[in-house]
């Protein structure tokens, strides 16, 4: 699995699937850690109190929407304060250790406007959506 797919998988814990359309986009480099991304997002939300929600983009790929609520929730579950990196979100994220090199990044696309999103897992209950047009289709 490449580093973009790995980071996107980690970032899914930050997403809010019921988020309203976002007017702001936060672009993240693929070489950041989830802690650094959370820091970036907190700074973004703190800087602009009127923004409830941002679209998270990693290396050009739309990951999804993050709200203040989902970011705060992730802070609780991911346990950013943990001194042991191996305890990082253990049990919450249900990562299948040992299989990770076999994951394939799934690409979704809005058939109306071509907006793209990515998932590491295909989960019927949590498919990406276009903020303007709703459901996206799986493109590979
Ligand atoms: Zn669309």
Could you outline the blueprint of secondary structure elements for this entry?
Elements: H1 3-11, E1 24-28, H2 34-47, E2 53-58, E3 61-67, H3 68-78, E4 106-109, E5 116-119, E6 129-130, E7 134-135, E8 137-138
Parallel strand pairs: 1-2
Antiparallel strand pairs: 2-3, 4-5, 4-8, 6-7
Structure notes:
The chain has 140 residues and is α+β, with helices and mostly antiparallel strands. It has one domain. 24% of the residues lie in helices and 23% in strands. It has three helices and eight strands. It has a three-stranded mixed sheet. The protein has a three-stranded antiparallel sheet with strand order 5-4-8. A hairpin with a 3-residue loop joins β6 and β7. The longest helix is centred in the first third of the chain and has 14 residues. The radius of gyration is 15 Å and the shape is globular. The two termini are 16 Å apart. About 17% of the residues have low confidence. The structure holds zinc ion (ZN). Zinc ion (ZN) binds next to loops.
| Helical residue percent band | 10-25%
**Major β-sheet annotation:** 3 strands, mixed
SSE series: HEHEEHEEEEE
End-to-end Cα distance, whole Å, is 16 Å
Q: Which of globular, elongated, flat, extended, rod-shaped describes the shape?
A: globular
Summarize this entry quickly.
By secondary structure, the protein is α+β, with helices and mostly antiparallel strands. Helices cover 24% and strands 23% of the residues. The chain has one domain.
Structural key phrases:
single chain, 140 residues, alpha+beta, three-stranded mixed beta sheet, three-stranded antiparallel beta sheet, 3 helices, 24% helix, 23% strand, globular, binds zinc ion
């Amino acid at each position: 699995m490449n580093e973009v797919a790995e980071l996107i998988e980690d970032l899914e814990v930050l997403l809010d699937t019921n988020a309203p359309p976002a007017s702001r986009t936060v672009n993240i480099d693929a070489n950041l850690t989830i802690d650094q991304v959370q820091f970036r997002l907190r700074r973004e939300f703190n800087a602009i109190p009127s923004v409830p929600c941002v679209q998270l983009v990693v290396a050009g790929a739309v990951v999804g929407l993050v709200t203040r609520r989902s970011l705060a929730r992730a802070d609780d579950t991911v346990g950013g304060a943990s001194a042991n990196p191996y305890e990082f979100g253990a049990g919450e994220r249900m990562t299948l250790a040992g299989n990770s090199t076999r994951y394939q990044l799934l690409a979704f696309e809005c058939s109306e406007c071509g907006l793209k999103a990515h998932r590491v897992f295909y989960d019927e209950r949590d498919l990406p959506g276009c903020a303007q047009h709703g459901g996206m289709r799986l493109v590979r």
